């Protein structure tokens, strides 16, 4: 039996695992200290009342013969697919509920969708980049072409004339940089993809943090995207579903290549390799997307964004350059030379855990990511500690 | 962008989809008729009280800040991994909780585990076969070698001297044939795999139906399996979790090839492409595996198995040859020439839906699968209708 040797080409350690080891070491060294995590993007506010109520009600349904549900549809239940389509409508994106596939989260399907593409495609990913885009392709033996984000392009690069790509990852609001594409800049990618027959994989996991109504929350707010883009979204950050696991993937029926609908291949993939998301979880997700759930989760996001404002204020006062901090749960600050050195310094001097930019690719070096998902109390405490840090 | 052309080599339609279309047509033709489904293996008995209570309690936990859970471990929570190891201990299999990976069900991981194997392995699957084993390999561009089950070997074939395989699927109790490997016969596969450096993918999804204590419920009841076998299991049939989605995959740390632990690659795969199973679902699963949950789900399985006895009795009376019907949720009956013709006849004459053996591969032709997952009332009604069917 031969192993998949592509795995040996993966870098030694997953970013957050390395950080976890460093934090564990620190905890052992200074047992009493409170370490504030502004590192991994994990939510801390509890499930909204609407979602928890729906979970309990669904548990009731499942425990009674008459309302018990066995296998559900591979694509997800229609009640949730329709809720998703209605949700898109609230911000002006046109998505057919029949094109919505319910997933266990954006991370899962970002990998799974690769199944339907041939081996010899050129994949382009942003740099800095969410490592999953690159690692899943390495596992398949594919090298990735990088599209560099930098200060000059505001970390929202557009296609260059030289770019030769078949599959393009775009994440907006971006992880790790917090940058958000404007409609104009996103349109350049949609046009590029349609002209070349490429496909965009649009990661919209942080769309709920966009409050500027002029910025697109979905790629489907751009004309032509329905012919070239798959969108992956998640309730993880929208509704604290990081540990609940539910999202969706939109594969428009109008996205065809060589006369084949990508959606048909995707449905075949899903029906063969997946048995749908738990019914009770789908009920909780639908509750999030109903009026009361949206109101409740919006209030939670408001609280997270206040954390961002608190941190951003200190950085501004200290003259630290950063991106994000609004319309996004991330703050991407310029930290100078080595971002791992900065990580060690920040943990040492302030007991704050962030994520070194270098962990997101070569173009992330010199930057550092903070997230807003802690408590308000922690944000205030972190701000006080940051005031004392020398950023030079 | 190039599509994965292997998808075009897949057979046109997924078995159960074709059946669903035939049933839909029939419903339109005879709107008043009650169709009894003994087709797809979907559970109908509600969640046990222990599982539903655990779900509700977990929803409570998730709705309070102090007990809220965000991202969980990729491998699953230790409380559940330990429950799984304890469960194995109840029937004498030795599994280390650290080797247990919690999954969204056996179907998912039967496909996912293929990620860690190289492209040029020879895959051997039983014939008749659960189509997922074959289709997931076709999607990867792999052809499958078949190991034929038949009347002579009781549908539990053993390795022939000619067999040259790197990855071997074994399903026991078998879907679709209901046949169960004895320890002796299973040992021959374990020895084969260890001698050749092959890997066994052991699908134990129906183990809870084994009541004969001399039959192995886990491959790890066989000496040496910890060096060659991955086991995939599920609570779908054990606890009515078809719509809840939870199972597990055991990748023993002692399973090494070329000095590499398969488990290390699998953990890398999971941490990159998966974010774990919902916390609330893992709590429900742990409740199933606790003493009270095991008692309750065993009572449900008893009820299902009574259905099997009712159907088996009629078949015996009518002199129809069959396999399974005990230690298994499947009855695999010899139906003569064309199993699709038999399907049409049975739907036409008795309003009963089963699954044609041909849908499980060439060696399934001439056979027909019935399942026990309906209600007791339906089993009695089906038995009455079967009495009137001419099986010749």
Taking the alpha carbons of the first and last residues of chain A, their distance comes to 53 Å
- How confident is the prediction overall: mean pLDDT of chain A? 96
**Computed structural class of chain A:** alpha/beta
Oligomer: homodimer
**CATH C-level name of the largest domain in chain A:** Alpha Beta
Please give the CATH architecture of the largest domain in chain A: 3-Layer(aba) Sandwich
Query: If interface size is counted as residues with C-beta under 8 Å from the partner's C-beta, which chains form the largest one?
Result: A-B, 80 and 80 residues
Number of domains in the coordinates of chain A? 2
Please tally the β strands of chain A and state the result.
15
CATH topological fold name of the largest domain in chain A:
Aspartate Aminotransferase, domain 2
Write the layout of secondary structure elements.
Two copies of one chain form a homodimer.
Chain A: H1 15-29, E1 36-37, H2 49-62, H3 78-90, E2 100-103, H4 106-112, E3 123-127, H5 131-139, E4 144-148, E5 167-171, H6 183-196, E6 199-203, E7 229-234, E8 247-250, E9 256-257, E10 260-261, H7 262-273, H8 279-289, H9 291-317, E11 322-324, E12 330-334, H10 339-350, E13 352-353, E14 355-356, E15 367-371, H11 376-387
Parallel strand pairs in A: 1-13, 3-4, 3-5, 5-6, 6-7
Antiparallel strand pairs in A: 2-8, 7-8, 9-10, 11-12, 12-15, 14-15
């Amino acid at each position: 039996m031969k192993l998949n040797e592509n795995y040996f080409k993966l870098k030694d350690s997953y970013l957050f695992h390395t950080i976890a080891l460093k934090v564990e070491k620190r905890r052992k060294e200074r047992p009493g200290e409170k370490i504030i995590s502004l590192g991994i993007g994990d939510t801390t506010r509890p499930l909204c009342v609407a979602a928890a109520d729906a979970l309990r009600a669904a548990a009731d349904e499942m425990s009674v013969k008459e309302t018990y549900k066995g296998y559900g549809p591979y694509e997800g239940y229609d009640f949730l697919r329709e809720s998703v389509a209605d949700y898109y409508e609230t911000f002006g994106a046109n998505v057919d509920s029949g094109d919505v596939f319910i997933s266990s989260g954006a991370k899962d399907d970002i990998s799974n969708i690769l199944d339907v593409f041939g081996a010899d495609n050129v994949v382009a990913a942003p740099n800095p980049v969410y490592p999953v885009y690159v690692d899943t392709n390495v596992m398949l033996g594919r090298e990735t072409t990088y599209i560099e984000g930098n200060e000059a392009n505001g970390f929202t690069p557009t296609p260059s004339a030289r770019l030769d790509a078949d599959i393009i990852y775009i994440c907006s609001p971006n992880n790790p940089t917090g940058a958000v594409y404007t409609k104009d800049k996103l349109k350049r990618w949609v046009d590029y993809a349609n002209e070349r027959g490429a496909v965009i994989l649009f990661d919209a996991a942080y769309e709920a943090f966009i409050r500027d109504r002029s910025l697109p929350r979905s790629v489907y707010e751009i004309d032509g995207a329905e012919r070239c883009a798959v969108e992956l979204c998640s309730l993880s950050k929208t509704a604290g579903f990081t540990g609940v696991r539910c999202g969706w993937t939109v594969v428009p029926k109008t996205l065809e290549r060589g006369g084949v609908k990508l959606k048909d291949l995707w449905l075949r993939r899903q029906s063969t390799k997946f048995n749908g998301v738990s019914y009770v979880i789908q009920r909780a997700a639908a509750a999030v997307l109903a009026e009361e759930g949206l109101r409740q989760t919006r209030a939670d996001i408001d609280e997270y964004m206040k954390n961002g404002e608190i941190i951003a204020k200190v950085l501004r006062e200290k003259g630290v350059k950063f991106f994000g901090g609004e319309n996004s749960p991330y703050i991407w600050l310029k930290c100078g030379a080595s971002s791992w050195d900065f990580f060690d310094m920040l943990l040492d001097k302030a007991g704050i855990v962030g994520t070194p930019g270098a962990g997101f690719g070569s173009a992330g070096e010199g930057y550092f990511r903070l997230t807003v998902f802690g408590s308000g109390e922690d944000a205030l405490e972190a701000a006080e500690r940051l005031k004392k840090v020398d950023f030079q």
